[in-house]
Hints:
Blueprint: E1 7-13, H1 20-26, E2 32-37, H2 44-50, E3 54-57, H3 63-73, E4 78-81, E5 86-88, H4 90-99, E6 107-109, E7 112-116, E8 119-120, E9 135-137, E10 141-143, E11 152-154, E12 158-160, E13 165-170, H5 173-193, H6 200-217, H7 224-253
Parallel strand pairs: 1-2, 1-4, 2-3, 6-12, 7-13
Antiparallel strand pairs: 4-9, 5-13, 6-9, 7-8, 10-11
Helix pairs in contact: 5-7, 6-7
Amino acid sequence: MTTARPLTVYTLTLNEARQIRAVLESVKWADEILLLDSxxxxxxxxxxxxxxxxxxxxxxxxxxRLRNHALAAASHDWVLSIDADERCTPELALxxxxxxxxxxxxxxxxxxxxxxxxxxxxxxxxxxxxRQPQLFNRQKFRYHDEAVxxxxxxxxxxxxxxxxxxxxxxxxxxxxxxxxQRYSTLMAExxxxxxxxxxxxxxxxxxxxxxxxxLVLQQGFRDGRHGFVLATLYAxxxxxxxxxxxxxxxxxxx
Length: 254
């Protein structure tokens, strides 16, 4: 009888007590749950231990590096990455277990269905939103050491799963803008490290281009007001990252 490869599920956390229980409940079927925690103070770790999760604590050093720390700490070669705002559906869990009986690929993209301000998005670049492989063999896979929006390197074949992971990233506009503030700072730091500069034209045209991309090219208008608000938020984020880059570069030349 064929046995499925053992699986480690990992998630990155920093003060995620509000939602960590839901994600852990959705992956409690895994052989190992690994929490890579950046010293939470809100009870996140205590909740994780209720699910027998193994907790490894690392100071925040950029998402790419943190994810690689998680891969190094995993007990098993096959890994499922799931963020604190995501949920593994029972259908996806079943598909993963079947696939791990005899994997045809070394990494798999997983479609995401995202919930935004009380609505499941169907367009706007948020569905099916194949972001990056979430199920993979860690011997063939590594993240690049980027602070945010980290890319990856794969030595092997890439496939796709059919079942969804559910994502609840922004329950309120306050949560959305707080996250965009943090990510825009990380992106400005990344751009500065690459020697990039932000011209006035970049700060003007890039946000407008992002707005049109989501609302028109990715058919955000079909999501109604939700699509319009999402396109506006991404335009705001795009402006912020270039404005913060301009601010950093200006301070260096003073």
